Amino acid sequence: MSLCIVVSCDKFLTQEPKDSLSPETSYETEDALEKALAGVYDMLGHQNLYGGYFLYNCGFDADDGHFARNSPSTGPAVYNFSSTDITVYYVWESLYKGVSRANMLLANVDNNAEIEEDFRNCIRGEALALRAYYYFLLVTLYGDVPLLTEPVDNPNDIFVARTDSRLVYAQILKDLTTAEPLVKNIDEIGHGGRISKSAVRGIAARVCLHKAGFPLCDESGYAEARAWALKIIEGESVHSLNPSYSGVFINYAQDKYDPKESIWEVEFYGTDSSVYKETTMNGRYTGPTSNSGLIGKCLGMVFATGRLWDRYPSDNAMDVRKFWNISAFSYNLDGTKKFSNSTSYPSLFSRFMGKVRREYWPGKDSDNTSINVPLLRYSDVLLMFAEAENAINGPTEAAINAVNEVRRRALSTGIREVKVVNGGSGYTSVPTLNFVGNCTVLPIPIVKVSNGSIVSVTFERDAVYGLSNGTGYSVPPSVTITGGGGTNAELVCSLYDPDAMDVPEEYTVTKEKFLSFIKEERSRELCFETLRRGDLIRWGDFYKEMSATYNLLLQYAPDYYFTKTYRNVTDGKHLLWPIPAQEIAVNPLLKQNPYW
Questions:
Q1: Which residue intervals of 143-181 are DSSP H helices?
Q2: What single DSSP character describes residue 161?
Q3: Domain-wise residue ranges, the chain
Q4: Which helix or strand (DSSP H or E) is residue 482 part of?
Q5: Distance, CA of 197 to CA of 1 (rounded, Å)
Q6: Which residues of the chain have pLDDT under 50?
Q7: Does the pTM of the predicted model rise above 0.90?
Q8: What is the DSSP secondary structure assignment for residue 77, as one 8-state letter?
Q9: Counting CB atoms within 10 angstroms of each CB, which of 61, 171, 530, 551 has the fewest?
């Protein structure tokens, strides 16, 4: 666990958000400005965004995961929808509501000049960054969108034409650039629930990488992304990776802040029975399925894909992300785990995403949870820097080291193998093994004896990954053997090579090779964090990768219901969502996207 972890006690979003504010009366005090800002943040956690739809119903997992139901058979999650789809409308409406709240606050933040200027400027900076983020989601989902930067007082003003995406991106980066000096350092805030300088810089890097990619293809974005990412890596706030990959997500579930790694997260609080609450479907719709009263209910509506499985090493224990992100189990009624051993392709498309787990959240009687949703982690910053640096200068040492930093955290610190040097003789029962050496978690060995000799040592499953070889070893432990009635057995342990996770040399010879490795590494590290679809689109890889997934299913699982998700993807059409028909009906200046 990271040493910099703060338990959440007084979440910012427990401020009562305001949906409708009178400029004359509602912006005159610091408390009123805080509540207005809470209203702008509030839309992030709405069930139409990160409180629900974004997590399972929008197809954002692309070739990493898919909707784990055979009905409904329509909607963005299965790439079978139209401009009248209600999800398409609800997302549009919610994002513009966030924009509207930000515009209203920005227009009135200086109403009372007696409020300390630094306080007003911080409010202004956070509102600008939030408006930028809402517009970033709008432009990446819908393409050219109406750009509104002032409050809409006159109903006739809603008749606004779509703005060229280049201008939308320019406004997004203008807002972020203006916000950066106004907001606080994350060290001063103490958590990732509010926008900090690091959050602004990281989101700006993400925006610039999208600017450099499809459809704008403005390669100046690479240099900008590199500069923004370096501001975090070399900045005044010290960011680092939590040594435990699973610990990052356990922290979200247990309401613990880890600002060194988790730079920005959507906050939730309360339970279904709370008077004041901001709950989420995270852990209710996403995660290993459960009907257990001891664990809490989870519907398990997102499955990982076999393609995600194949990106990890074939040695399941080598990369600890594999069995954390791709669950090897579901929960039994008594709270225990039912493990799966099958590795057939149909089964590899039917394993639950495991990044969110109800067992770590204390509200067992509540359907919805308060498990925070990550928007920006430090590992993402390192990978964005590497991608931008590679685009400009090729696979430099700095770029390779950034990727290696992410990968080394993922290497198992457990025992790779217990080699039977001498099986001994005379063993009439299974002996007891004791692994002598410093570690975090001891392995639980399974010893096989045949004809009086020890012939093999494997390990029992643990409760976290579904496999266990211990954790935390820096040097191989020695093994003492007691009991069993035999003698002279000798066992030797080996650990994983510390260099085993470094980028293979063959991927560091050209820009193209290194980029291909980064693309897969982003999948391994950031799967199920709502980024994959956008990444594939900006790389120009979306249709290719979705088609490759479909072809794999045709070969190994042609009759399974989830095959249609990938069959439904149409080249060109599904790079953007349609403008909601409901909006076009009331705004004659809006024109529909191609193919819709």
A1: 165-179
A2: P
A3: 415-495
A4: strand 478-482
A5: 24
A6: 1-16, 18-21
A7: yes
A8: G
A9: 551
